[in-house]
Design brief:
four-stranded antiparallel β-sheet; alpha+beta
């Protein structure tokens, strides 16, 4: 697994729950180091150990942890760059949804060897969509649930989401766009601001 993904897990825990909680995760996962290097690759089993340790430490279900990670990835100031990358997908939530098919390719422009799930969106009409997520490691669909809920809020849209498993480990997210202009949403400017 790419170090960026493992580092995101580390930052999620430290930024949300503190460094003491991360030390507990390190101990439970039996890591012989305390921090992940962003540009290294790690065994997939190690990432699973860390996720299991986070679940045990927090005392919540795996799906909830993964969804919270998806929310963290687009709300926390430490990962603002990802929100910016996602917002380039369109000016509205429906446009953003249509751009998800190209997300893996866009991310590889920034990090060439980053493997994201294969996403395919079906527009079912009347504000209904079905997003399929295929990856050798299950659970990315839950991360996407958190990310999509947060991005809907970011765009000011009201959307209902439901997660299910399809054939051969495929994850399906059913999206019902209730109102694309439900609230003003969060501001976004194409130009990055330097303080």
């Amino acid at each position: 697994m790419h170090g960026l993904i493992n580092r995101a897990l580390q930052y999620f825990v430290t930024d949300t729950y503190g460094s003491d909680r991360w030390e507990e995760v390190v101990r439970i996962a039996r890591l012989d180091f305390a921090e992940f290097e962003a540009m290294l690759h790690y065994e997939d089993a190690l990432t699973e150990q860390v996720i299991a340790a986070i679940v045990k430490t927090l005392g919540v279900k795996r799906a909830m942890v993964l969804e919270d990670i998806g929310t963290y990835l687009v709300t926390h100031p430490n990962v603002e760059a990802l929100r910016r990358l996602l917002r380039f997908g369109g000016e509205s939530f429906p446009e953003f949804l249509q751009s998800l098919d190209d997300l893996a390719d866009r991310s590889r422009l920034a990090v060439e060897d980053l493997e994201l799930p294969e996403l395919e969106l079906d527009d079912l009409g009347d504000g209904a969509y079905s997003l399929s997520c295929r990856h050798v490691h299950g659970g990315f669909g839950y991360v996407l649930m958190g990310l999509l809920r947060t991005m809907a809020d970011d765009y000011g849209a009201l959307a209902l989401l439901d997660h299910a498993f399809g054939q051969e480990g495929e994850e399906i997210i059913d999206i019902k766009l209730v109102d694309a202009d439900f609230s003003p949403g969060r501001g976004f400017d194409l130009g990055a601001h330097v303080a």
